[in-house]
Amino acid sequence: MTEGGCLCGAVRFGVEAFNSAIFKCHCSKCRKAFGGASSAAALVREDDFSWLQGDERVREFQCESGFKRRFCPDCGSILPQYLPDYTLHWIPVGLLDSDPGVRLKQHIHVSSKAAWEVLDADTQQYREGFGS
Ligand SMILES: [Zn+2]
Ligand SMILES: [Zn+2]
Fold it and tell me: Is 132 exposed, middle or buried (CB count within 10 Å of its CB: 0-12, 13-18, 19+)?
């Protein structure tokens, strides 16, 4: 199991297996939520995800799209997000304590990327979501 947690350590979670490679989402909403150029994340099925500690503390901001953006109320770290339509957890990989084994494979929503960001040429780029 790959474990991860927030900056203050109050919230901990575990992942048994990843359901995708790592991608970076460059949409404007991820930029706001993560405060960076993009969000580096991987998807995990419901059965492969568990909260290990502090799940009762997790705060949730639900976007209009239904996407649930979760965060720690104590330290402000982003936490595993949730895609209800796909029953998938969207794991920000910066939260992981060790190498998850999966690697960066895709940039998505590149059409919305910040003007100042320069992307590496070796990674697949999609103008919108996955595979588009
Ligand atoms: Zn925290
Ligand atoms: Zn995004």
Answer: exposed
